[in-house]
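Re: beginner question about structure tokens

> Can someone show what the tokenized structure looks like for a real chain? I only ever see the sequence side.

Sure, here's an example I had lying around. Input first:
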Amino acid sequence: MRDNRRAEIETEAGTARITWWSAEEPWAVLALGHGAGGGIETRDLCAIARTLPADGVTVALVEQPWRVAGKRLAPAPKTLDTAWRGLWPALAEPGLPVVAGGRSAGARVACRTAGELGAVAVLALAFPLHPPGRPESSRAAELLGAGLPTLVVQGGNDPFGKPAEFPEGPYGMVEVPAADHGFAVPKRAGITEEQTVMTITDAVRKWLRPLRE
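And the corresponding structure tokens:
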């Protein structure tokens, strides 16, 4: 159940914001950052925030300082990492295991910083393996370097990297059929948005359950 609690956190990169979707009896916190082209209102982040509290997972949707400030362009990855490090104590404050995650650029931030910050796992939604049309500019090292249990949830038609393009590694992969980078599916695919969202949330719920044991 969402408790409408928002907290603004001062970081070296500016003021960040956390919106909490709290479980009644939480056993973990799932922190999710947004991508470079949007905020926390994307279909995947919203669906997870609505669904996971019923499983005892409090979801923290994190807005980077550039979004809080109303800017249109994301800063350099180093600045995104600085902000994430600065707000991490607020995510860990409940004293629960924290799963670091995000979509697109937010997934990259989580992968780069999860180990040093003490996260127990990483959730990478729509991981941007490479810029569209430039498979030679791979970011696989970020994903493979997380060093923690990791789940990638990837659209089957994502121009930033289709599931088959990902290298083998110690992570799980769930494909969202026919979906693009925003997990949108063309009408000709015969798949509804509800089905797509359920694929995402079911995958995350199934993956998190063993972490509780």
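Each token stands for a local structural state, so reading them left to right follows the chain. The chain has six helices and eight strands.
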